[in-house]
Amino acid sequence: MNKHFSLAILIFIVLIVLYSSINYTNSYIYLNVRLPRLLLTILVGMILSGTGSVFQILLNNPLAEPYILGVSSGAALGSIIAGLVGAFILAPLFGFVGALISIIVVWALSSRNGYLDKTKLLFSGIIFGMFISAIISFLMYIFQKDVGLILQVLMGNLGHIFYTTEWILFLISMVISIILLVYLYIQSNALNIMTTGDEAAQSIGVDVKKLRLRIFIVGSLLTGVSVAYAGIIGFIGLIIPHFVRLLVSSDQKKVFPLSVVYGANFLLFCDLIAFNLTVVEFPVGIITSFIGCPIFLYLLLIRKK
Amino acid sequence: MKKTFLIIFLIALTIVACQQDIPKKGIVVISPELAEIIVNIAGDGQIIGVAEECDYPQILQYKEKVGNFGQINLEKIVSLRPEYVITSSLEQEAISKDLEKMGIKVVTLYPKNVNEMLNTITELGKITKAEKNADALVEKLNKELSELKEFVPTAPKKVFVEIYNDPIMSVSNDSYVGDLLSIAGGINIFPTLERDYCRVKNEDIINANPDIIIITYPDMTKEMIKSRKGWEHINAVKNNRIYTIDEVNPDLILRATPRNIEGIIQLRNAIYE
């Protein structure tokens, strides 16, 4: 564990140095433009990968991630609406409300007496996500002038330009997000126990009902923040936790922190490519999928052996 | 048996009757700029259909609508039986192909700079049989343009044109706006870009330190530009030289029309006060 964690941190530091030094112009631009982007990238990578790993355990399903549960789409719709009505600064709030509404709907569709039907949850999440996507496509059709804005929410964009007030708001959301991530880490033990099944966990004294609800709300909050500032960035929540589980055992106490760091690493790497190596800046969501899909398939193949 | 023949005969007759050619007449224009030019040189008489976006001159608003710029209603156009459909830009390529398949004459004109706009006027003059008016207009515009081009700024100003905010986008010198900007005497901070209308990096804008910022889309205020993080040291922000659609009417610089003369004057007034 220690060995893996040190390596992850080492890569993290190298990437930060690269990210900061490539095309460095002057300290003013670094502090006002590059550093915000760096922080945003790290935060989004940590959030997506961390919540992904928690959702996978919570639902006992390796495919679970915020996107599949319709949460990302809800958040995307929220921040798109914020953009369309011109309330740019309130985008995170709208994003969070969108995420919360979708998780409430999906939850209501799939729970009975507080207990969750996991299959139903995945189904309702996917269907609800599709429904939201249809609404977004519809908005795209109507508001043709704002297709650029909608596309960048859908494809992911880390080049968010902050307004001064918005920047303070972002720093606050960042601190809250980190606290929430720490909360998720603290729940690792309980989550480990939950992998043995709800009844077993309940008998040991884990309040499964409450814990699940709390973690879902925390996950939606985090997703809402990430989508509001960076749009939907696919694949990180899915592949990074699985990649980490190949490195270490499936103990959530190890998987979670490593996922968080590797999530940030992966997104930093992808954004370096999106920002520097291409002539026209690409939406980072395209790059994560481009790199993520082959790596994930490769991992699946070697795992079979 | 007799009955069947009779029915077939009647159906055939109906089809033949329906096919009787009503002569195709008139023009459908699905580009606001081209519609404006046509009204300028030939009046609105020949125009039988327009896209939603064709809003100038006002008379066009009362014309039959055939959908909007990106989503044209094909059936509607066919039902109007136009002689020509006039389209613009690559975005409309698909619709042009569909129309051609249905035997409708499609003319695509996409002026990318002021000179091409002048050629477009001549071209549209031929189509609408208003060559005389077209030539007169071109001559007048040429004169006005050469007068405008005589202006040489004593201290050239660097200009950043922002056409969209999220993602932030600007224009190159090869774009229509870029051409107008250089006639107006402004120095574009992004003379060459990968595409004419292209995403640009926040860092590059701050680095280029433009003297003037021109915003060409609605809902963006000077205060919002000023409060962008890292923009407070840009000359345009420091000296309050940000111009929104209240000062520079985007229709006058984004659309290729005779009104560009006014657009250039508005740009120049903004840049050199």
Keywords:
heterodimer; A: 305 residues; mainly alpha; ABC transporter involved in vitamin B12 uptake, BtuC; two-stranded antiparallel sheet; 2 strands; 78% helix; 1% strand; B: 273 residues; alpha/beta; Rossmann fold; 2 domains; 4-stranded parallel β-sheet; 12 helices; 13 strands
Please tell me about this protein's structure:
- The complex is a heterodimer of chains A (305) and B (273).
- Chain A has 305 residues and is mainly alpha-helical.
- Chain A has one domain: ABC transporter involved in vitamin B12 uptake, BtuC (Orthogonal Bundle).
- Chain A is 78% helix and 1% strand.
- Chain A has a two-stranded antiparallel ribbon with strand order 1-2.
- The model of chain A has no long low-confidence stretch (mean pLDDT 86).
- Chain B has 273 residues and is an alpha/beta fold.
- Chain B contains 12 helices and 13 strands.
- In chain B, the strands form 4 sheets. A 4-stranded parallel beta sheet of chain B has the order 2-1-5-6, sandwiched between helices. A 4-stranded parallel beta sheet of chain B has the order 10-7-12-13.
- Chain B folds into 2 domains: 27-134, Nitrogenase molybdenum iron protein domain (Rossmann fold, 3-Layer(aba) Sandwich), CATH 3.40.50; 149-272, Rossmann fold, CATH 3.40.50.
Order of strands, widest sheet of chain A:
1-2
Radius of gyration computed on alpha carbons of chain B: 23 Å
Largest sheet of chain B: 4 strands, parallel
Q: Which runs of chain B of at least 5 residues are low in confidence (pLDDT < 50)?
A: none
Kindly provide the radius of gyration of chain A, computed on alpha-carbon positions and rounded to a whole number of angstroms: 19 Å
Count of domains of chain A:
1
- Supply the CATH class of the largest domain in chain B: Alpha Beta
Number of domains of chain B: 2
Beta strand % of chain B: 15-25%
Question: What's the number of helices of chain B?
Answer: 12
Mean pLDDT of chain A: 86
Briefly note the structural class of the backbone of chain B. alpha/beta
Reported by name, the CATH topology of the largest domain in chain B is Rossmann fold
Q: What is the overall number of helices of chain A? A: 13
Distance between the termini of chain A: 24 Å
Shape of chain B: elongated
Query: What is the succession of H and E elements of chain A?
Result: HHHHEEHHHHHHHHH
Q: How many strands in all of chain B?
A: 13
